[in-house]
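Recall that a protein's primary structure is simply its ordered list of amino acids. Everything else, from secondary elements to tertiary packing, is in principle encoded there. The following example makes that idea concrete.
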Amino acid sequence: MRIVCIAWGSLIWEPGPLRLASDWRPDGPRLPLEFVRDSDDSDELALVLHAPAPPVPTRWALLDTADLADAREMLRAREKIRPAWPQWVGSLPDPVPPGLPAATPAAVVAGIAAWMRAHDVEAAVWTALPAKFAGVSERAPSAHEALAYLDGLAGDARARKRTCAGYRATSARCTAASSRNGWGGRRQAGRSELLRPW
């Protein structure tokens, strides 16, 4: 089975235990991503799937496994997802373990499935962590809260945020943070975008 990992953010430059069988490719599915998760293990406001966000580019790579359970476990370990929350690792086929609520919206799963058919991919895994802010799961910060959070960073943490977690994004949240803090935004095609060299 040809299994890929669909990725964005730090997973691309820090794959950790993911066994990759190819380089990251730039033509992944466009997915609704936003900086709405207060990370459990860093100062990061992490980029996660968030249905109201505009679709942005993702990357993908072949995994060095033909076993979907193995692929899910590699991604779970890399993302430090507790075993009690297996639905936070999305996959096709079988996007949701039996008896658990879907973490990835049906429209997003359908878009990933269409992308897979176009790329002759048999199976895919992706991170399906929900928004979380101020310790409340499934709560997205407002733009004001996100900016206040970014403004409160200092030293190395602030330096790492110069490109709004290092991802190309079109969100108002990142555009405002970039403009306000001199974090590298630029105008392109009539809108502000943040760019990170890959």
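Residues 106-118 form the longest helix (13 residues). Confidence is low (pLDDT under 50) at residues 163-198.
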